[in-house]
Amino acid sequence: MSSTGRSMRCFKSNPSGTILLKDTWRVASKSPLPECKIYEKLHEYEDPHILDGTTAGDDETDTVDPHHWLSKPHLQNRRHCRITLKHMPCRLDQFTHVRQLITAIRDAAIAHSRAVRVAKVLHHAISVENIMFKVDENGNVFGYLIDWDLSLDLSQTTSGAQFERTGTWQFTAARLLQRPRNKEPLIHDRIDDVESFFHVTNWLALRYTAHFLNGVELAQSLHQTFDSSYVNLETGRTYATHQRSTNLVSGLLLSHPRFANSGIRTVLLSIHLVLHHRYKPLEPAPHTPLLHKQYMRAKDDKEEALRTLDDPNWLSTLLTEFLDNSEIDWESNGGRVDHKLRHW
Q1: Can you tell me the distance from the alpha carbon of 43 to that of 37, in angstroms, rounded to the nearest whole number?
Q2: Please, which residues bridge with residue 78 across strands?
Q3: Rounded to 5°, angle at Cα 66 from 64 and 67
Q4: With contact defined as beta carbons under 8 Å apart, do 221 and 215 qualify?
């Protein structure tokens, strides 16, 4: 656990395991809102994919100031807090079938878009750990989006959440982890969360579904795309390499593994078809008629993709269409595969 972060821990607080006690250190300010206040806003709209909360509170006497031992001005004071939630039995990475995985992600995407549109709350930290699911006695899957303590209240004009990077490194939007080209602050927006949903799906597909990469190739691909970083010697800040955005543009991390399940392959390729336009550069318009026509076609494609991403319901609607499509073969090679990573 980091001495400057949330140091979050979770416990089952009753013998049956139906109540989860979350113990964490939140930013000690009114902005961002405490997680319990965020849950109050979300529960007003009775979203079925948000966990039910029971009690919450801060320990007003237990506050820590990281500046006492670290000279890092961007760090913020932390306050000890606890919240109890209805416990879900399965983490997202415990799925047993790809259809189960995509259903849970679809439900989390519904919760995410509804929170933005109705409650004016942006989750800000989409990751494998923040999506859970349960399976009822009939085999139906219900997904949930959890951990709203880093979320952004969009109804406020300013936010303390912007002082620190939020989210899990492996799943954060590529543009937020790259060295900025100017001194303007990068603001984490809704489409960055949509990109995080893609990274979560891609990472889990590589790690736990059938494909043709061997252990060494898989370990290298995961490290280069999701983990690699470097430290800027002038600022001391850590940034991601360009491998993540390069793979988003090229799509090599989707085509090279040759995913064996039709459903997961369709999902990843379809999301990528739109999302890669965030990073695909548009070269200056050429003067020759033929090249100019190609440029205008590329420009139209990019503008259409960005308009598609502007729709808060796009991702959840897309996944629902695929799950309901009887022509997509979800069963063949759809079981979970625990790949053995072999480091070079």
Answers
A1: 10
A2: 27, 64
A3: 125
A4: no
Could you tell me the two tokens for 12? Answer: 């089952």
Integer angstrom CA distances of residue 49 from 115, 131, 133, 344: 10, 10, 9, 41
* Confidence bin at 67 (pLDDT 50/70/90): very low
Summarised one tens digit per residue, pLDDT across range 133-153 is 999 999 999 999 998 988 988
